[in-house]
Amino acid sequence: MLPYLLLSPLVVFIGALSFVPTADTTVEAFFRVMPLNPPNRFIGLGNFRALFADPAITTSWINTAAYVVVGVAASVVLGTAIAVALKQRFRLRGVVLALVILPWALPAVVEAVIWNWIYNPTFGVMNSALHSAHLIGGYHVWLGLDRWLTIVLIEIVQVWQITPLSALIILAALQAIPPDLYEAARVDGAGPLQAFRRISLPLIRPALAVCAVEALVLSLNIFDQVYILNGIAPLGSSVMLQTYVTTFEDLNFGGGYALSLLVTLATAAASMGMLALLYRRTEAA
Amino acid sequence: MAAGGPGERTARALTRAATGPAGRALSRRPARLLGHTVAIVVILLWSLFPIYWALNTSLSTLSGADSTPAHYFPSPLVSDSYRAVFGIGGAGNGISGELGRSLLNSAIESGVAMIVTVVIAILAAYAFARLQFRFKRTIFVSVLATLLLPAYATLIPLYRIMASLSLVNTYLGVILVYVSGFLPLAIWILYNYFNGIPRELEEAAFVDGATPLRALVRVVIPVAAPGIAAAAIISFLLGWAQFLFPLVLTTNLSTQPVTVIVAALNQQRIVPFTLLMACGVLAAAVPGILALILNRFIVEGITTGSVK
Fold first, then answer.
1. How many domains does chain A have?
2. Would you call B295 and A101 a contact, using CB atoms and an 8 Å cutoff?
3. 8 Å CB contact of B244 and A96
4. Exposure winner among A19, A158, A231, B255, fewest CB in 10 A?
5. Which site among A4, A5, A7, A278 would you substitute to test the B interface, given the most B Cβ atoms closer than 10 Å to its Cβ?
């Protein structure tokens, strides 16, 4: 009896607030649900057809794909670079490690508000610094004009937040590699770069896979940064933002459910696919 | 914007230069040291500059913050923005009450959610790690599977559930949603931690006639204190950072957390950037300070939570 007693609060919480809602989303995606405009009734694939016909939604899917590509690539590469630099022993390493984690610990909304000020077209420090360095002739409006530039700049804000997580995970994997392997490579005349490619990289592949999947799920879900830096304009809109707008601004709950279901399935498929890909490459290596 | 990138590249270039035919043995070490130092400085700049920039602006006068080119240090350094946020000296312009109250809401919501999450997670993780029972694997796997469930999957139904229970815009509604979201990660962290504790410790207690529950309270929990701290701090930080769920689940200042208020102030477009940055700094202060002090537990929680 004891195990079930210990588990009962967990089962109640996860059951009522994770499983039931997920099932609810799956079912309601096939219903017309408009709280201010009843009746709610079964409409089959009606919600999905409406979603595919809406250009704003299509734009948000393509944008989200761009967020994911930039987010996964940048956070894994940067995370690896930071982990390699932090692997060596040096003075104040503990302090540096604590400071590097800071962006991960702060609320994304607050970070986005700060970066919005950094990107500010008239008084932003990015304009000022690039201008002082003679990299730009005049001040730019960074956000909201060019679609891909807007997406990259918004994703940088998310990468800034999630990279510490990747760096820590990769660092832990690097530290688990026995030092004798590097010693043996050095004796055989391998340089640091070669040692990294031949020893570190294959051995940290599982950690890279974990980081890639985490970054994938987070960037596929990107909302806070887009809400602050892009607003609800279609230009840089993400699928999560469109779900919010469809559901809570247009009050088309059925459409929101359908969109949620599609992204949940896409997340699951993409995570599985990426894991399979990265693990296969581990075996090949 | 590749922060580690340029530093790494410099480091490599320096190493290459130093290992050239001229000074192989002599200059290799200092050059690598220099390269590494440059890399660390670049990493720190990337990690901290935006935070510094918020602080800098919040401590500047409005004309100091709105100057071109930008001033990299507050000149003059003033606390006007913080006084205004807290309504000191009659300078509050509506923000004063809002920010203080929303900070309190954040503290209550993430604090209570943290406590409930950790208590439930300890009980469950102990059962998963130590006890044998039917459907153990099924329950364990399905709980952990929700870790990969995106917010999308549950947002709308949770809103409707809370609306039907009249729990929209209540602390309880927010806390229930947080707990259900944070439980899987807390259980994963604690499960791994409990598994690392030698069973002999509890067996000694069993020999003395203790029940499993007593062994949990007297033996396992004290030994697992660092793991419990990790689960607690990570749950708290997750709670403090929430935005989308409270945006939907809270409707006014009686429950809105600081993230929602900062986003609203940002949207008003009339709040000066000095004030906005002061609000941002205050909203980030609690998680920032906690992360610095409890850093050790966070690193432990993240790494056990992810690699395995």
1. 1
2. yes
3. no
4. A231
5. A7
Given a contact cutoff of 8 angstroms between Cβ atoms, the answer to whether A239 and A219 are in contact is no
Nearest CA in chain B to A126: B70
Q: A19 in a domain, yes or no? A: no
Q: Which residues lie below 8 Å from residue A204, measured CB to CB, with a gap of 6+?
A: A80, A170, A173, A174, A177
User: Are B216 and B254 contained in the same domain?
Assistant: yes
Single-letter code of the amino acid located at A50: A
**Region B11-20 average pLDDT:** 43
Cα–Cα dist A240/A60, whole Å? 9
Residue numbers of the domain that contains B49: 4-90
- In the predicted model, is pLDDT for residue A38 greater than 70? yes
A150-165 residue pLDDT tens: 999 999 999 999 999 9
Inter-residue contact A140 to A127 (CB < 8 Å) = yes
Same domain, B79 and B161: no
Tell me what the mean pLDDT of segment A187-214 comes to.
89
- Checking if the pLDDT of B189 tops 70, the result is yes
Domain ranges, residue A132: 43-284
Task: Name the residue with higher pLDDT: B151 or B222.
Answer: B222
Contact partners, residue B291, CB within 8 Å, separation at least 6: A98, A101, A102, A104, A105, A106, B233, B237, B298
CA–CA gap between residue A143 and residue B255 (Å, rounded): 32
Say yes or no: B181 and B263 in one domain.
yes
Q: Give the span between the Cα atoms of A38 and A88, in whole angstroms.
A: 64
Mutate to test the interface with A, among B44, B152, B243 (most CBs of A within 10 A): B152
- Residue A120 in this model has a pLDDT that exceeds 70: yes
Which residues in chain B have Cβ-Cβ distances shorter than 8 Å to A82?
A: 3-4, 43
The phi and psi torsions of A236 (rounded to 5 degrees) equal: -115, 15
| CB B157 within 8 Å of CB B180 | no
CB contact under 8 A, A10 and B187: yes
Q: What is the DSSP string of chain B?
A: --SHHHHHHHHHHHHHHHTSSTTHHHHHHHHHHHHHHHHHHHHHHHHHHHHHHHHHHHTS-HHHHT-SSPPSS-SS---HHHHHHTTGGG---SHHHHHHHHHHHHHHHHHHHHHHHHHHHHHHHHHHHH---TTHHHHHHHHHHGGG--THHHHHHHHHHHHHTT-TTSHHHHHHHHHHHHHHHHHHHHHHHHHTS-THHHHHHHHTT--HHHHIIIIIHHHTHHHHHHHHHHHHHHHHH--HHHHHH--STTT--HHHHHHHHHHHS-S-HHHHHHHHHHHHHHHHHHHHHTHHHHHHHHHHHH--
Measure CB to CB from residue A172 to each of B146, B242, B307 and give the nearest one: B307
CB contacts < 8 A (A, B) = 288
